[in-house]
């Protein structure tokens, strides 16, 4: 498959690497000068592309940008998304992290992040990879059928997009769970039991069902506070997953206490 990736940071880079290893043709872009982008792309086995080129001739375009970029979408990104053919699948890995992205009023008022992204980009998106930590994406994948294989949640309104992204998920080492429509994608946002808790597909289905919009923002803030309260040397991947899992545990306790 031909895949473009906008943003090769913590998420976009391992994604590109795994897709290349699986035999896909991948081109990547970011904001760096051409020589630096070329070096970064080469390290991933991908081709460097300008923003004008990254969406040309691709089957899938992945947006792996922080929400502060989406909130004030630069003109070149607006042009890219407006001129993208309708049949190109757009996948979005993003999450709203207020201390990083700044306050985004619509999201503070409860708009579903996936719907907000679709509005910013001016076209439908499918949520992909947003409920896995970057380290999980980089090192947590396993071949299909491996016992305990981790799963990611896909949410969107386009069944073909979800089928294609299920294939790509498999190729990079993860089962995919259909988490419903884009409007349902709040169930995999930060502060929910499905967010970065490293679950198998059956566990993820249950976690998605346990999501509670009333406590989501509060849980997101609690988790970030706990993570950043840890001294840096103790802020390991394992420790972060354990803190994220406290959201799942709280939801399970809440359910059993009902
Ligand atoms: N980190 C995680 O564990 C994780 C897990 C799941 C989902 N996510 C979500 O995925 C998204 C990306 O996260 P990340 O951690 O990969 O972020 P990151 O490391 O900060 O990477 C962001 C990427 O976006 C690029 N970028 C910024 N502005 C751009 C523009 N105008 N045009 C093209 N490229 C641009 C950056 O390029 P430059 O380097 O050139 O600035 C960089 O490659 C976020 O919304 C995040 O919340 C993160």
UniProtKB/TrEMBL annotation:
InterPro entries: NAD(P)-bd_dom_sf (IPR036291), P5C_Rdtase_cat_N (IPR028939). Residues 2-95 form the Pyrroline-5-carboxylate reductase catalytic N-terminal domain. SUPFAM superfamilies: NAD(P)-binding Rossmann-fold domains (SSF51735). It comes from the Bacteria. It holds the Pfam family F420_oxidored. This is Pyrroline-5-carboxylate reductase catalytic N-terminal domain-containing protein. It comes from Solirubrum puertoriconensis.
